[in-house]
Amino acid sequence: MAGKTLYDKLWDAHVVRRNDDGTCLIYIDRHLVHEVTSPQAFEGLRLAGRKVWRVESNLATADHNVPTTDRSKGIADAVSRLQVETLDRNCHDLGITEFGMDDPRQGIVHVVGPEQGATLPGMTVVCGDSHTSTHGAFGTLAFGIGTSEVEHVFATQCLILKKSRNMRVRVEGIVGPGVTAKDIVLAIIGRIGTAGGAGSAIEFAGSAIQALSIEGRMTVCNMAIEAGARAGMIAVDDKTVEYFRGRPYAPSDEIWERAAHAWRDLRSDPDASFEKDILLEAAEIRPQVTWGTSPEMVVAVDGVVPDPQTEADPIRRESMLHALTYMDLKPGTRLRDIALDKIFIGSCTNSRIEDLRAAAQVAKGKRVAGTIKLAMVVPGSGLVKAQAEKEGLDRIFKDAGFEWREPGCSMCLAMNADRLEPGERCASTSNRNFEGRQGAGGRTHLVSPAMAAAAAIAGHFVDVREL
Amino acid sequence: MKKFEKLTGLVVPIDRANVDTDAIIPKQYLKSIKRSGFGPNLFDDWRYLDRGEPGMDHGQRRINPDFVLNQPRYRGAQVLLARDNFGCGSSREHAPWALDDYGIRAIIAPSYADIFFNNCFKNGLLPIVLDRATVDRLFRETETTPGYRLAIDLAAQTVTTPGGVEFRFEIDAFRKHCLANGLDDIGLTLQHIGEIEAYEVRRRREAPWLFGRS
Lengths: 467, 214
Ligand code: SF4
Known about the structure:
The complex is a heterodimer.
Chain A: H1 6-13, E1 15-18, E2 24-27, E3 30-33, H2 39-47, E4 58-61, H3 78-94, E5 97-99, H4 109-116, E6 124-127, E7 141-144, H5 147-156, E8 158-161, E9 165-172, H6 181-192, E10 200-205, H7 207-210, H8 214-222, E11 231-233, H9 238-244, H10 253-263, E12 276-281, E13 288-290, E14 298-300, H11 314-327, E15 342-345, H12 353-363, E16 374-377, H13 382-390, H14 393-400, E17 403-404, E18 425-428, E19 443-446, H15 449-458
Parallel strand pairs in A: 3-4, 3-6, 4-5, 6-7, 9-10, 9-12, 10-11, 15-16, 15-18, 16-17, 18-19
Antiparallel strand pairs in A: 1-2, 2-8, 13-14
Helix pairs in contact in A: 2-5, 6-8, 12-14, 12-15
Chain B: E1 6-13, H1 21-24, H2 44-47, E2 79-81, H3 94-102, E3 106-109, H4 114-121, E4 126-129, H5 132-144, E5 149-153, E6 158-160, E7 166-168, H6 173-181, H7 185-189, H8 193-206
Parallel strand pairs in B: 1-2, 2-3, 3-4
Antiparallel strand pairs in B: 1-5, 5-6, 6-7
Iron/sulfur cluster binds at residues 63-64, 108, 110, 129, 131, 347-348, 409, 412-413, 430-431 of chain A.
């Protein structure tokens, strides 16, 4: 019999029941909750007179609506405020642990979960948020769900699921200097497309993936959803195990030893087979910049905006034309000649301490270009912020002219006050460059933290390899 | 949940690939703590020329006459025709809520994003997958035939054109059963309480660290 993939192992360990039609009842170990996708689920639960199955499996924090400026003033927008207060009230009433807006541990749910050790290897982790794939970085089966499923998990601790296909993306070799996890994942999406992982759970593997830090692995898995995959995951190694040692919700003592031992088996067997297997050469990956309105519309920083006329597929050509109009770009324009209005360093893709260090290194001793209207750094959590301040990164950013903000999703999706105005162009370390994502009419280019910082200094894109 | 059995509905074509859930229902409407009322904001950025905010009077807004949903011939559409990877991006269930609230009962596309596809079924909305060539043909026929309606039969798993051409689609037996009977799957899962509890007892023994308190 062929060996099992990591995904097979995680799946099999969580099957409560197999139904006749091939779907399975899958047990959920950890449920992360935020304010946007939960109110209707809490309400549904209440209306049906149902209880939360395992209260202590839930962890909540408000991230999408929270202001990144002075928190003592509360939330100015009444509708946003009500949503955050609704989460507070629901968690309080049901006894669910919540890191409220003023808690030092508050932050983007996908940064907070691992940071607290609430996400652990071998778990099934869900959240009403597509970027839950982030948590796959630790040999975890993690994926986003809709609000009805949030309610289903509250009520039953399970989900009815059909197994996805096994897909592997290997990145072999060593990346060049200046090439980060973000560039790797953008290059992967550029290769396989935004639907390339459809119906699949992707395991990221290969020496270039193993060489990544845990933070870098989270960045890669975070964007698995942008490749259309149900989940992204990476095998456990020593780095993974060490990452969790001593975290608040991680096990300790004798249980730790048992857990760490079990975690080391969270890898695909050597003879496991994948229905789809893709190989990228790390050495060929250059710093990436998206030019369009889908993460697959991406080129290397030393490239040019592509010409739709060279695209054979009519539907793709049409969407390229559409994207160019929206982005106000012409084919053949060098990426380096694209001037920017705003810079956003943050989001669950790139707001961890390592990301801030990379950006600070570029910004150190420099000044944000006068043509940049706003350059902001938004740490992923209160603890990341505190750590960065301890290292003096906040000073580096502020001295260079960046704004240093409170943690949250911020301009990644602009549900709070941070947003692009129509026509503004932004270099962003987030994960989606969709139309209007960062504000109606706003134009987003996705890049790594170092590339964003370098663009802030220059006022346009620059190749970080030349710094 | 609403039942889905049969429907003969007017078709509206959204001729773009990778339509994301941000486009289906923009983020500012996600601040609502309700499940209903999203219909007027379906495709808000494309449908109106001014910027929408929650609580606005939609009667007073500037309509984009070029957007298909605003063309009189598509008024009252119940079937949405779409391209590849429809519903990609954010997991927001507000997307199917908005489609449902607007009056859409079924979607036809060559492919969907996973989470959106799942979310549809939880809301009595039928996402049908037909191959690209067929979808192409339906786009052509819709655009050239005012009042173009498709007949959808869930039990028979067919889509039939006004000309009587029938296309078969696949659907999971479980999803079909739930949709046809309007079943709430939480209720179904709770029929297996014993199995869930037995699983927990075993796992607590094998892997106690999974049951730590957060
Ligand atoms: S940072 Fe952006 S992508 Fe991540 S959870 Fe928040 S809104 Fe979603």
